[in-house]
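User: Batch of two.

Assistant: Item 1 of 2:
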Amino acid sequence: MLVVLDISSSDVTTSTITMMEVLQEYLNEFLRILPTAIIALIVLVVFLFIARIGRNAAESLASTVVDDPSLQNLAGTFASVLLTVVGVFAAATIVFPGLRAGDLIAVLGLSSVAIGFAFKDIFQNFLAGILLLWQRPFVVGDQIEINEFAGSIEHIDIRSTSIRSYHGQLIVIPNADVYSSVVTVNTDGDIRRSAFDTGIGYDEDIEAGREVTLKAVKGCEHVLDEPAPRVMVTGHGDSSVDFRILFWTESPKSMEAVARDEIGTAVKYALDEADIEIPYPYRTVEFFDKTEKETGE
């Protein structure tokens, strides 16, 4: 069945006029609020400029109080965020004259739950970063160990902590993970103690071996005299009496690594010169012919 629609020219003209009137109203409304929007934009730009100046001023002021660049950066961030928020409130008030600060706060309060769920991880890292910068369990330049990572701290900000590993890689760890993990700060003090394990044969004299080992360790350049190093018997191994050398060095990893190399070299040469054996594991292998036993031959 064929249906014929009869649309008169008057209806088309009326629809066109109505659409033009709506567009004209939108245009008039846009032109009406345009000057206000421009003023609000100018105010916002001015506050952003002021926020940058405020950040620099806050960092300069903080530098006179603390030497930690991370705390200085935190002070600048707070100043910048505060001035930016004030600028947004001022611009919103210009565009919407009837809007009060209390209304904006109420809107932010209603939307905070949704924002909190959406940006949960970001807020956790932000809060953890503030706590780390405020409590200062470690500072830039410290050498730390966290989980399977170890290295020197290069940067701490409100989102993450950057570590330069001893192999040269840059490791960026979210602050929430840093704050909730066990962190070992190797450079918290000026010196630290390390251990080196060695051993002598069962046929050797323990006290003679201890004396030779201790003398060799004390002769190492990077081993501190105070606290003095010690050599202790820690067990009876499969083929040796086990010694543990406890020694103190300066805190940086490089000092500990150099001292460990010196100890390993000096102790080996000293025990060889004293004709004291450093044994390697012995294994005794016995072979049995089971066929001979089973046949009775």
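Item 2 of 2:
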Amino acid sequence: MIIANPVLLKEMRQRFRGIKAPLILFIYLMVLGGFILGYMYLIRDRLLSFDPSESMGIFAMLSVLQLILLAFVTPGLTASTISGERERQTLNVLLTTELKPAGIVISKMISSCAFTLLLLIAALPLYSVILIYGGISPTQLWGVFAFYLVTMFLFGAVGMACSTFFQRASISTITSYGIMAFLGAGTAFLAAFINDAARDDAVYPQPEVIPFSVQFLQDINPVLVLAHILGGGPAFGPEADWILPYWAVYALFYLGVGVLLLVWSGYRLNPLRKK
């Protein structure tokens, strides 16, 4: 069982033991709370009072900050797990235990993502400041939190895949951040390029809906999906009527790719695999 996994227990004790974890949590909450109070002060100073309609701006700012946290922290924690064991020359000892390679990969990923999940959960009370003034529904709040969980799963799986593939932790970390940059900025740039090319095409000079590839790229882009959840709507014009909504496409794609990456990581880590 995962709960009785010695690798998971050891990793969890190492990450949460001592003053480092609560200190980072304290600084993180102070920074987020400072941003919220500072934004409210600027609005009050401009309007002489706080307008409850401005709560959507606070909600959007807090959501974007936490997405940036996921993009920077999660790959950095997972990309050095297996490669770090390889650099310390302890991976071969770990593989001689009764743990399966898939169990080692899952344990490393859970222990790495546990601290990021703690940061997300600890920031939930800050949203109460927004809910006091209204303008944000609890359904929208839980939708954003579910979006964070799905995004964190794929980011962690990407880091684990890079960690098992590359020999050095520095190379795997840089590659993980490169993949995150492609998911956040590269897919948006590619979607904008394809959309402009389709509109300049003589056959389809003014398409009524965006092309299939553009719609798929914007549905897997975390920044555009978060903007859509916050009420921004599609970024590249009217969408085609798919069977699945944008959030279902995002969830299925990220969960499916994350599972495939974890399975591949376990196979890659298996010393008995056929080379």
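The CA atoms of residues 191 and 263 lie 29 Å apart.
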